[in-house]
Amino acid sequence: MEFILCDLSDGIGTIQFNNDAKRNSLNKQMLQELMEAFGRIEKTRAQAVIVRAASGAKVWSAGLDVCELPEPGRDPLSYNDPLEQVLRIVQKFPAPVIAMVEGGVWGGACDLAFVCDILVGTPSATFAITPAKIGVPYNSSGILHFLNVLGAHYVKEMFFTAEPLSAQRAASVGILNHLVPPQEIESFTRALANSITRNSPLAIRVIKEQLRILTGSHPISPETFERIQGLRRLVYDSEDYKEGVRAFKEKRKPVFKGA
What we know:
The chain has helices at residues 28-43, 82-92, 108-115, 131-134, 140-147, 152-161, 167-172, 185-197, 201-215, 222-236, 239-249, and strands at 4-9, 12-17, 48-52, 59-61, 97-101, 104-106, 118-121, 126-128, 165-166, 178-179. The chain is of the alpha/beta class. The strands form two sheets. It has a six-stranded mixed β-sheet, sandwiched between helices. Strand 1 (4-9) and strand 2 form a beta hairpin. Helix 1 (28-43) packs parallel to helix 2 and helix 2 (82-92) runs parallel beside helix 3 (108-115). The radius of gyration is 18 Å and the shape is globular.
């Protein structure tokens, strides 16, 4: 694999982003390799998985590769989108997934970190969900991932401002389970994963699935679902969506007109 490094040791799988030149942006190839890596590790019956960037990374991941977003008229975050597939794999993976976070976590990568079961970070970690910066309508399942971690007011602030939360604030509001010095993060995260491997893998697998089902049990009516999809379509059919993507590619600030 080109963009992902995959390893297994003592019942603990490690998946490392390996595309520093592009700030570990989640392009389609990298997402496919992530799926493959999780598949390989699942076959080994690993009891924990650590997802990380290179040691000392300034950016954990810059999120979706904006250059690969579809043209207006097509949902940029549909059910079968590679990022959505990766998020479901992490949620349904039969062992706990630990995000070891150094550096910035942006956009869709923030969603990826939030669906991990445990987050450990250093003071350099920041979290920003940025679809409003480029005029992208976020999907309902993604917003629910944030609501399952944070209260509604924090979620609104993150989505409306698109500004990053510091590691200290992320720890105080419950995004980070642990905030540790950079020189200790690898040993700390490994020790945490080791503590998981000493417990019953069957019990953990069942409890994780119970938690997934319970946190996702927010039924909505077909009419409500259709209204949400209609609202999102207004955005990805809009001039703002075109402008946001165009401005990103041209490396300038977008000029949104709300239409």
